[in-house]
Structures are given as structure tokens and as C-alpha cells.
Write a structure and sequence with these properties.
Layout (H helix, E strand, L loop, with lengths): L1 H8 L3 H14 L4 H13 L3 H14 L4 H13 L1
Helix pairs in contact: 1-2, 2-3, 3-4, 4-5
């Protein structure tokens, strides 16, 4: 996740989505990868994709409050 996060923080959103997707393909139960990919989709203003990933992150870790908050922000942005 750290490499993908570094790419994300440098504004390489398209590459970050690819990196997070690769992580998800290898470890489909890693909630943080869904959460960060959702963050990236939000930066790209692809809110429907962000919402889908926040929902998956919530399924995998229902106690992560930021996922609920950010999902709500994505709904508002739509």
C-alpha cells in the first residue's frame, strides 16, 4: 500500500487506481486498499466508483468511521 499511497500523494491518481486494483486482486479482503482506491476515485470525481469502494471497505471493516463519512461526502458530490 505504501507505494500506491506515495503515488496518490503525488497526484498520480490514474496510476494509483491501477496500483490499488492490483492490491485488491491479490488480497481481496484488504479493506484499506478499497478505502484508498475510493479516495483516489473521489479525487478523480468518479463518485459512483468511490461509493462502491467505500461500501466494500465498510463490509470488510464496519468500524472504520471514515469510510461512512467519505461515502456520505461522495453521495453529496453526486
Amino acid at each position: 500500500l505504501s507505494r500506491a499511497y506515495q503515488i496518490f500523494t503525488q497526484g498520480g491518481y490514474g496510476i494509483a487506481v491501477f496500483e490499488y486494483t492490483e492490491i485488491i486482486n491479490l488480497e481481496p479482503t484488504r479493506w484499506a486498499a478499497y478505502w484508498m482506491r475510493a479516495q483516489t476515485y473521489s479525487e478523480l470525481r468518479e463518485y459512483e466508483k468511490a461509493i462502491a469502494d467505500y461500501k466494500e471497505a465498510i463490509k470488510l471493516d464496519p468500524e472504520h468511521a471514515a469510510s461512512y463519512n467519505n461515502r456520505g461526502q461522495s453521495y453529496r458530490a453526486l
